[in-house]
Every structure is written in structure tokens, then in C-alpha cells.
Task: inverse folding
């Protein structure tokens, strides 16, 4: 017999990428410009274009989690981890559940966002969110926090399992100050989160999240953008809150609503688990967001004015057999938008579609804005890495597709033999990709396939490998690994005949 | 004429003896090995259901069931649950957690078929009524493969009870096991349908019934139906059938479930050993424990915690890994990954074949766990692989039977479309591959080979 559960809500978070565009800056970028610069990885995708590309040097291509080779530190997470780590200001943040409790007072199923010190992995503080009473229809058990935070300076923005957009003080209460307008935190010890403001999307805009709120925020100027995850109810037929927006823009200082858009109404096929992307395209600062009807839409970033929309499914497709929703995050690369559709992993494998879209067109650009369409991909929940004219896009069935970004012609595919929930990360010309078997495969970039290594992480990897300051951070289901080239042990007097000159310091 | 009759009788006798050597008496055959035993028989490579090539017979069976056919002598037994709602279906490839709507009356039936012709010898209705528990959209109301000792055939009809018939179709006894409602752990409204198959050990029929509350294993006397023993277990819902290890020193009844893998004395139900399996993190255990090469191989579980564990029999007490431990003396080997979710692996000629639900076939050295090859097939699998005559048979949810040559390299001999989802594990007997598709039982074999087998 055969039943299959999956943790459905999980994938949502895995799908992010980074863009190279920092908020407000101009977007014309060299192929490698998606690197966030400065060594941190402060949001899903590293930069607002969500392209999973980094120029970082010195990230290892070999390590061993059993023998602890090249393992700088490892920290226990909850039992299921779908939040992709981010690294900023000397701290690492990752969403998980409460099955490995850090605070003995906090018991039972919770959404947990943990903060660790980047250098040695010391646990610093955590944000605890109670589960919604409605249960799995809105807030699936044990899925924890699926949002990947955005960190700007001393403020961290993320979305909780209760559908709240929350701004936190990155110092927590360790600074002995209760910052922000929220002063009534129930947990306010030194290892608790200090909330600055909170925006409840269920209360404020009537969102009815399906299974999980997972959006990873992105910002532009004073605004931050998130998906509401508004979706169907348990019947999988009704959209109980058809008037709730799909995307909202909040003022990041005050947490007040600035604009919202709803173009989907009752046409939501299931849920809304993609995350927004920002870039300057055709001279216009745009926020791009894929929605529950299987369309992707572009908005003027400051005003929310809808500029274009594109149907990511063939017109004769039928949900759920052939028509798909969208879980992946759109990626901007050289003024084009790249995005594949897919479905909740619980729905299994199936046909998929990948598009290159010209976002300078206006209106319904399904025909006019289609640069190319690739239909050899299966359903995908991943967000691609695009570098030097090659798109690296995995599908949920476990095939990684390398395509010409200009034409959509396939150069090669690679079968990892297991479901892919996370996203590929291109670091200094090497692509890192995790799978449900817990393997990280490392491939050389380029038009011909070359596998460099395959390394098992001892448990499923549902997240994306994240590079920061010379270290690779990988969360498997229940542990966070910091992986870095370890220097050989310092010479001991026994094997050191004479004093050696000090090693030159790395810049 | 009379002489002819004698010859036929003789043939029949010979056939019975020969065929007895190739019984398939329970889920995955003799010793639940998935391998045909006895004198080797030539097995079919390819067939064509549309043209009846190498298809000896096909018999329509109403209703829905994922139970395998079982074979003893010249009889094939199958069970089914027939809904009075003609639209009742299962969704072969579903991966969700949704429930089917089963509020119509059902009839739970057992059929005896003639192995040579597929003709129905008899059918019996064990129970009629609205199902006492619900089912997963991918499941049926009759998922447990029956078991026989050659005299009695025992069918577990889920929440509708355990029924024993003789080979003439006479009901010998029945036992109400209560509502068997395994489902998503922690959600009592989630009822996916019982699936664990009964096993026979000596004069006992043993059932493993792990559910939302009140999980138990129990043994009943095969002749009388009287309860021999019953042990309550602290277990989450599971779907795995128990397995018997018969060693020189002692026999062990092995159960696979989320909290523990356990060994029991099959005659008394006394727990011999246990191994922590991960509890809540290891939900939805489905594959049967597998006994091969004096090892007990346990697979299955949720993605992310789906190792392959090979235990040495004879353990006692709690043999769980302690924090930080990678191994323990009772573990011959442990692979961190590679297990299937639904199907039970196959050990054949010292290689272990694991057909993943996603179509990825992984092959290992059975004694050491050393990887041999991996190959993706264009399919998804719920059924377990079976083997005979140097061939591996893999029946897919897409309705194809892949025939591979057994060995250390991948060699696909044929892909045979059947046209309907294949959820049940096939049976093998006397040169025949016996398939249960959504609507039919098929007997597939080369006519000459099957004749020789008789």
C-alpha cells in the first residue's frame, strides 16, 4: 500500500534566490553582479534579483559531516527545517520548529527563528511563534518557520507561521533594551527576540494562508514586500477570503500598509508560496511576484501599479493534472525574468514549464513578453542560479537543467535521483545543490556537465546552501552546518624543530 | 478414455506436487522473500495483454484492492472491497494526505480462482456494510494480502475483521479486531486504511495493528481463531507487515514501526529486543522487515529519516543507538539513505534491490550494504519487486512491468504495459507471473514453460 504524506508546507521556503540589486540601486549588472558583496548573505537569494549566485572564493568542495572534516561548527535545529539560512552582521538566522527546545519554558509545537553567532555557532536568541488554532489548514504542524529573513543593518524582517510580518532587533534583548513599538513581548529574557513591529496579515488584510505562510521579504527604498500566502480552505475548492491581496507593501520603518494588490480573487488554484523579487527593468523599478492563479505579475515598486502579467501555463492546461501553481521565486538576470511553475510537493511529480520573460512589455504579455519556453522541465519548486549566460534550474523530480539563457536550448541535464526542494547555489563557478536524500552535489559551471563531488549530509536537505564570509552554511532537516576549509592543526613543539615565521594574514 | 483419465490424473498429481514447490502463500511469497522457491521455472520476459501473447488468462475482479494474489497448489486467492458507489476510485500516484469519501456500503470478498484457467472456483462475502474507517485517496478498503498454510486461507479485511476459510470456501472462524484506522500521526481524523498483512507461523496467524490509539500485535490459532496472545504497543500508526526470522536458536517476530523496530517471540508475544526508530520523526513505516543472509533488513519511513538497517538476529533488550553512536553490535550495517517509502526491498542472489517510490532503483550488496548501481526508471512504484529465473519484476503505478536481468549491472529486458495502475505486488508460481491490476488478475507466462512446470 502506498500512502504518502509529505510535508507540504515545506517547500515553500526553499525557493528563493538572490538578486544583485540592492534596494534603490541601479540594476545594470555584469553577469556576476548578483553577489551581495561584503561577504554576507542577508536575504533569500542574497540580493533582490534573487539570483542564487555568489563570487565568494575559498568555499570548500569537500567535507565530511561524520568525520567532521572541514566542519567549522554544527548546531542542532528543530526536527524539520525549511527556512533557508541568511547571514548578516556576524549572525546566522534560520527558521525551524521547537522539537529541539532551546528554552525549557517553551514547550510544544512552535515556529522558531534562531540566531547564532557566525564565528562559532553560539546560540544567541530565538523568536517563538505559537501555532494557529485552526491547525494545518492555515499552519501545518511541525513545519516551523519557512520564511527566509531579510536583514538590513540592525533590523530583521520575516514572516511567521501565523501570517505576521515581523521586524526584529537583530540584537534581541541582549542589548538590554526593548526597541520598537512592541513593548509587551511575553518572552523577554536575554535569549529572546525583541520585536520592533508586527503586521498581522490575517487580521489587517484578511489573508487566509493555505497550510503555511512562508514568504521571504524583499525591500526597495522604504518598502518591504511579502506574499500573503492567501489560498483555499481545507475543501480545496473554496477561497474563503477572495478579496484579500496576494502581495502587500509595508513601510519598513513603521510596519504600515502602503499598497496591496489582488488580481487573483477566487482564481487561486491552491495556495500562494512564491516570494517577490525586485529589480530595475526597462528603467522602471519593479517588484515581481508569482501568484496563486499560475500567473506572474510585475508592479511599479513604489506605487503597486500593475505593469504586466504573464500566464505560466499553456492555455489548454487543466489544474491539477497539467496546470500548475508557482512555488519558485522569479529571478532577474540581464533584464529578463526567469521562472518555472510547479506544485506543492505533496502533489508529486508532473509536467512543468520554464519561461524567459521580457518584463519591459506591458499588459497581458503572455504572448508578447515570452522570450522562450522550455517544456522539458518537470514541476519545480526551486529558484534558479543564472551565470554567464547559463540558467541552472532543477526540478522536483531531481533533474538539473542547464540551459542557454538567451535561447532556452538545453546544454545538459543531471539526475540527482532524489526530490529537489531547495535551490542551487553558484559559488565561484561551482554549483551546489541539495536533495531529499541528503546529498549535496557540486558541479562545475559550463556548457558541458562535470560533477566535482557528491557529499552526504546525513539527513534530507530541503534548503539551499548559503555562502557567507568564506563559510558555507547548510541546514539539513535538523542541523545547521558551517563548512569551511580548516587549516591543518597548528604545529606542536614535538614536530616543530624551530620557530616558524607566522603565516601571512589573509586580507 | 479411461486411460486418458488416468494420465490426466497423473499429470494433475505431478502438477500438484511440482506446483506445491512454487507456492506463493502470503505477501511476497515463501518466507516473504519475494523470490520464487523450488525448481527453477522459465519466466516470461515480454507479453502483450492486448494480443494475449503470453497472457494465459485474465479474470475481472470487481471492486478495489491493493492486496497481492496468493497461490497454493492450483488455487489463486484474491480479496477485494466492492463499493455500491460505482464511482469509487483510488488515485494511483497521489502523494498527499487526502481521504477518499467512502460512505457507501461495501462488500468485502474473497475469491478462489483456478490457477490454470483463471475461472472462479468460489467467492465469499466476508462482510457487508459502510466501512468502519476511512481510507487514503491512494488506498483501498482491502490492502492486506491474505495468507495460507495450504489448508486455511486467512484474510484481514481491515476494520471489518479477520476471516479464515478452508479451500472449499467454508468460513471457519472470524475475529473482530476493532477499528483499524492508521493515519497521519497526531490527527485522529486522518484514517488512511489498514494495510499490514497477516503472517502465519506454525499454527498461528499473527497481525500487526498500529493505529492512532491502542496499537497491538496479536496471534490467533489458525484452526480455531482463538486468541493465542495479544500485546499492546506504544506505537504510532504503521502499515508494515510483520516478518518471521527462523534461526537455529530461536524464531523472532519482527515488527517495523515509528517508535521501535522490535523482535518478539512469535509463540508468546514476549518482546525480545527493540531499536529506537526515531518516533515522530520516522512516521509512516510501510515496508516489511526482510530476512536474508541471516540478517534482518528494515527500511522505510518519512523522507529525511529513511535509512537501511541490517540487524543481526539474537539481540536482547534495548539495542538502540545512543546519542553520537553510529553503530551497535546488533547492526551489521546501516545506510543513511536509499530506502524506499512504500515497497519492500528484494534480496536476490545476494543483491538487494530497492525500488524507490520515485522510480529510482538502487542495488546494494545485501551482506554489506555496499552500493552496486542506481538507475532511474520512468515510473513510480508502490508494489515491491519480485524475482525468479534470473529476472527482477517491477510493477509500476503507471501500469508497466519492467523486467530486469538480475545482476551487478543494469539491464532492462522489457517494459510491458498493462494499461492500468499496478499497486499490488505480483505473485510468482510455476512459471507464471500473477498480476493484480486495478480491475483484473492476470496470469502471464510462456505456455510451454508453464506446461513444463506442470
Result:
Amino acid at each position: 500500500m502506498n500512502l504518502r504524506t509529505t510535508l507540504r508546507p515545506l517547500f515553500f521556503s526553499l525557493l528563493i534566490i538572490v538578486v544583485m540589486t540592492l534596494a534603490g540601486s541601479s540594476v545594470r549588472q555584469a553577469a556576476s553582479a548578483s553577489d551581495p558583496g561584503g561577504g554576507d548573505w542577508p536575504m533569500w537569494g542574497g540580493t533582490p534579483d534573487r539570483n542564487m549566485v555568489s563570487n565568494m572564493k575559498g568555499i570548500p568542495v569537500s567535507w565530511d559531516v561524520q568525520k567532521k572534516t572541514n566542519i567549522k561548527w554544527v548546531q542542532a535545529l528543530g526536527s524539520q527545517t525549511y527556512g533557508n539560512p541568511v547571514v548578516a552582521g556576524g549572525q546566522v538566522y534560520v527558521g525551524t520548529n521547537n522539537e529541539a527546545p532551546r528554552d525549557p519554558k517553551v514547550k510544544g509545537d512552535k515556529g522558531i527563528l534562531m540566531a547564532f553567532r557566525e564565528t562559532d555557532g553560539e546560540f544567541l536568541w530565538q523568536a517563538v511563534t505559537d501555532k494557529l488554532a485552526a491547525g494545518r489548514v492555515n499552519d501545518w504542524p511541525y513545519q516551523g518557520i519557512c520564511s527566509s529573513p531579510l536583514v538590513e543593518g540592525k533590523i530583521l524582517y520575516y514572516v511567521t507561521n501565523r501570517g505576521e510580518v515581523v521586524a526584529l532587533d537583530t540584537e534581541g534583548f541582549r542589548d538590554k533594551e526593548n526597541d520598537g513599538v512592541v513593548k509587551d513581548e511575553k518572552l523577554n529574557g536575554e535569549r529572546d527576540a525583541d520585536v520592533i513591529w508586527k503586521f498581522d496579515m490575517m487580521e489587517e488584510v484578511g489573508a487566509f494562508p493555505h497550510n503555511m505562510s512562508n514568504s521571504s521579504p524583499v525591500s526597495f527604498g522604504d518598502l518591504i514586500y511579502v506574499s500573503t500566502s492567501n489560498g483555499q480552505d481545507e475543501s480545496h475548492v473554496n477561497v474563503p477570503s477572495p478579496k484579500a491581496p496576494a502581495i502587500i507593501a509595508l513601510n519598513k520603518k513603521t510596519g504600515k500598509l502602503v499598497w496591496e494588490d489582488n488580481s487573483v480573487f477566487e482564481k487561486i488554484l491552491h495556495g500562494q508560496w512564491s516570494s517577490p523579487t525586485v529589480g530595475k527593468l526597462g528603467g522602471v523599478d519593479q517588484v515581481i511576484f508569482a501568484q496563486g492563479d499560475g500567473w506572474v505579475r510585475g508592479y511599479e515598486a513604489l506605487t503597486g501599479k500593475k505593469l504586466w502579467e504573464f500566464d505560466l501555463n499553456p492555455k489548454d492546461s487543466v489544474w491539477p493534472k497539467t496546470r500548475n501553481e508557482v512555488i519558485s521565486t522569479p529571478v532577474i538576470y540581464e533584464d529578463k525574468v526567469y521562472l518555472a511553475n510547479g506544485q506543492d510537493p505533496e502533489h508529486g511529480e508532473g509536467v512543468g514549464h520554464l519561461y524567459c520573460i521580457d518584463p519591459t512589455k506591458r499588459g497581458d504579455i503572455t504572448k508578447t513578453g515570452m522570450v522562450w519556453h522550455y517544456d522539458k522541465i518537470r514541476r519545480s519548486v526551486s529558484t534558479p542560479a543564472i551565470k554567464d549566460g547559463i540558467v541552472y534550474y532543477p526540478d522536483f523530480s531531481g533533474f538539473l537543467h542547464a540551459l542557454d539563457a538567451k535561447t532556452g536550448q538545453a546544454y545538459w541535464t543531471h539526475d540527482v535521483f532524489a526530490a529537489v526542494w531547495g535551490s542551487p547555489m553558484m559559488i565561484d563557478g561551482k554549483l551546489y545543490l541539495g536533495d531529499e536524500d541528503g546529498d549535496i552535489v557540486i558541479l562545475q559551471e559550463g556548457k558541458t556537465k562535470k560533477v566535482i563531488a557528491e557529499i552526504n549530509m546525513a539527513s534530507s536537505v530541503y534548503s539551499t546552501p548559503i555562502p557567507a564570509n568564506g563559510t558555507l552554511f547548510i541546514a539539513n532537516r535538523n542541523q545547521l552546518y558551517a563548512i569551511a576549509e580548516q587549516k591543518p592543526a597548528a604545529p606542536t613543539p614535538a614536530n616543530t624543530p624551530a620557530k616558524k615565521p607566522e603565516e601571512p594574514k589573509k586580507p | 478414455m479411461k486411460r486418458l483419465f488416468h494420465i490426466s490424473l497423473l499429470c494433475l498429481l505431478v502438477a500438484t506436487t511440482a506446483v506445491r514447490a512454487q507456492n506463493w502463500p502470503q505477501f511476497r511469497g515463501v518466507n516473504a522473500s519475494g523470490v520464487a522457491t523450488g525448481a527453477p521455472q522459465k519466466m516470461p520476459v515480454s507479453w502483450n495483454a492486448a494480443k494475449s501473447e503470453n497472457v494465459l488468462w485474465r479474470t475481472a475482479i470487481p471492486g478495489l484492492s491493493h492486496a497481492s494474489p496468493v497461490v497454493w497448489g492450483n488455487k489463486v486467492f484474491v480479496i477485494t472491497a466492492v463499493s455500491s458507489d460505482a464511482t469509487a476510485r483510488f488515485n494511483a500516484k497521489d502523494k498527499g494526505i487526502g481521504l477518499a469519501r467512502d460512505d457507501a456500503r461495501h462488500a468485502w470478498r474473497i475469491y478462489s480462482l483456478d490457477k490454470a484457467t483463471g475461472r472462479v472456483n468460489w467467492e465469499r462475502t466476508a462482510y457487508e456494510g459502510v466501512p468502519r474507517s476511512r481510507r487514503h485517496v491512494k488506498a483501498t478498503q482491502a490492502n492486506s494480502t491474505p495468507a495460507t498454510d495450504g489448508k486455511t486461507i486467512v484474510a484481514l479485511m481491515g476494520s471489518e475483521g479477520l476471516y479464515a476459510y478452508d479451500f472449499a470456501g467454508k468460513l471457519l472462524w472470524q475475529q473482530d479486531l476493532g477499528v483499524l484506522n492508521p493515519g497521519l500521526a497526531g490527527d485522529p481524523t486522518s484514517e488512511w486504511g489498514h494495510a499490514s498483512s497477516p503472517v502465519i507461523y506454525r499454527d498461528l496467524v499473527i497481525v500487526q495493528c498500529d493505529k492512532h490509539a491502542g496499537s497491538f500485535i496479536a496471534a490467533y490459532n489458525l484452526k480455531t481463531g482463538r486468541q493465542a496472545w495479544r500485546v499492546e504497543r506504544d506505537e504510532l500508526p504503521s502499515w508494515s507487515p510483520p516478518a518471521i526470522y527462523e534461526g537455529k536458536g530461536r524464531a523472532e517476530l519482527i515488527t517495523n514501526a515509528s517508535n521501535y523496530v522490535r523482535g518478539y517471540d512469535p509463540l508468546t508475544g514476549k518482546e525480545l529486543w527493540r531499536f529506537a526508530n526515531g518516533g515522530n520523526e520516522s512516521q509512516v513505516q510501510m515496508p516489511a522487515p526482510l530476512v536474508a543472509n541471516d540478517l534482518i533488513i528494515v527500511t522505510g519511513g518519512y523522507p529525511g529519516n529513511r535509512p537501511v538497517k541490517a540487524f543481526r538476529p539474537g539481540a536482547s533488550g534495548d539495542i538502540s543507538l545512543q546519542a553520537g553512536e553510529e553503530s551497535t553490535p546488533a547492526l551489521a550495517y546501516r545506510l543513511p539513505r536509499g530506502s524506499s517509502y512504500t515497497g519492500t526491498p528484494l534480496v536476490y542472489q545476494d543483491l538487494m534491490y530497492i525500488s524507490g517510490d520515485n522510480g529510482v532503483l538502487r542495488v546494494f550488496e545485501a551482506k554489506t550494504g555496499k552500493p552496486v548501481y542506481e538507475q532511474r526508471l520512468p515510473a513510480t512504484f508502490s508494489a515491491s519487486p519480485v524475482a525468479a529465473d534470473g529476472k527482477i519484476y517491477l510493477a509500476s503505478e503507471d501500469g508497466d512491468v519492467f523486467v530486469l536481468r538480475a545482476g551487478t549491472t543494469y539491464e532492462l529486458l522489457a517494459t510491458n504495459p498493462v494499461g492500468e495502475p499496478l499497486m499490488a505486488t505480483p505473485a510468482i508460481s510455476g512459471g507464471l507471473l500473477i498480476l493484480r491490476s486495478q480491475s483484473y488478475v492476470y496470469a502471464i507466462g510462456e505456455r510451454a514453460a508453464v506446461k513444463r512446470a506442470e
